[in-house]
Amino acid sequence: MRGMSAIVSVIARLMAGMLFLYGSYIVLHGHLTPGGGFAGGVLLAAAFILGSLAFGSVESAERSSYVFSSVFESLGGVGFLGLALAGYLAGNMFFNNLPTFFRGQPLALVSGGIIPLANIAIGIKVGAGLFAIFLALGASRFVMKE
Amino acid sequence: MTELYVLLAVMLAAAVVSAETKNLLAAAVALGLVGFSVAIMFILVQAPDLAIVQAVVETLTVVFFAAVILRTTHTDSTAGGLLKRETVLPLIAFLGFAALFLVLASRALAGIQFGDPAMRVAAHYIREGLRLTGAANVVAAIILDFRGYDTLGEATVLFTAVVGVLTVVRRTGRRNPAGEEGR
């Protein structure tokens, strides 16, 4: 697939940014409104997948793209584990929340202790992981053809 | 409630079609119908978090399936043939177990109303969630605070899946020291 028609490319260029923005919004507001790391992460992955499909960069994806997405996936996972372990820093239990981190004002964007941070970590992890799977599956067809 | 039962019937029919049809693309579309019905169902029982996840994941899944199926094959020769001994006996067994399950479930759930769960811990989460965690979205409070271990396990499952896929379908195979193509 060498990229799709001009109509698809133009629409995809418009939509990918909006998808990315919406995904970020869902991740960042996970502790206030419906959504969260998983939903927002899938939307972030969808933005990248839309771009790659429309511009045909799946098969020409560089090795660095895999490394990039794998690294981000691992960073998200390590970040989530680190947040869980941070409970020990306060001399408390695994997954301890409020005494460790800022409490904030309820219903404010910065509130809820580790919950928004964990949402961000999970969002990065899910988005990068799905995009890595997509790249791997898209490129494997290329190898089979050769 | 009626909508739920209508949706359930649609989902069952679509699931049977998806399992039995010979056209793989139709099977993928039927599977998508099941998934989107689940998303609508989540909205009806007021679980918008799950509805968002379900709708987005289902869209991606159907796109993946359709992309793969359109490029490979169209028919599945193993499906079909309803009135054979191999299909009638499992059907009878299935109906028997379904009847048994329905009887037992109706007896077990007799005194429990819809929307009034037997587990009392949920009411505590809903009442105290905001005060104890500071998160306004009670779903986020549960999955990332009260039930953080569950989410950690989920993240581990996803991580394992990604590692598995990248290992199996990676682009460059590992070569042995002699320079020959590894298996």
Brief write-up:
The complex is a heterodimer of chains A (146) and B (183). Chain A is 68% helix and 0% strand.
Plain-language structure description:
The complex is a heterodimer of chains A (146) and B (183). Chain A is mainly α and 146 residues long. Chain A has four helices and no strands. Chain A is 68% helix and 0% strand. In chain A, helix 2 packs parallel to helix 4. Chain B is an all-alpha fold. The chains are: A mainly alpha (146), B mainly alpha (183). The interface between A and B is large, with 54 and 40 residues.
Which terms would index this structure?
heterodimer, A: 146 residues, mainly alpha, 4 helices, disordered C terminus, B: 183 residues, 72% helix, globular
Draw up the topology in text.
The complex is a heterodimer of chains A (146) and B (183).
Chain A: H1 6-28, H2 37-55, H3 63-89, H4 115-145
Chain B: H1 2-20, H2 24-44, H3 48-71, H4 85-108, H5 121-133, H6 138-146, H7 148-168
Strand content of chain A: under 5%
Oligomeric state as shown: heterodimer
Low-confidence stretches of chain A: 142-146
Pattern of helices and strands of chain B: HHHHHHH
User: How would a textbook summarize the main sheet of chain B?
Assistant: none
Shape of chain A: elongated
Unreliable runs of chain B: none
Tell me the number of strands of chain A: 0
Rg for CA atoms of chain B = 22 Å
Q: Which strand-content bin applies to the residues of chain B? A: under 5%
Q: Structural class of the secondary elements of chain B? A: mainly alpha
Give a count of the beta strands of chain B, DSSP E runs of length 2 or more. Answer: 0
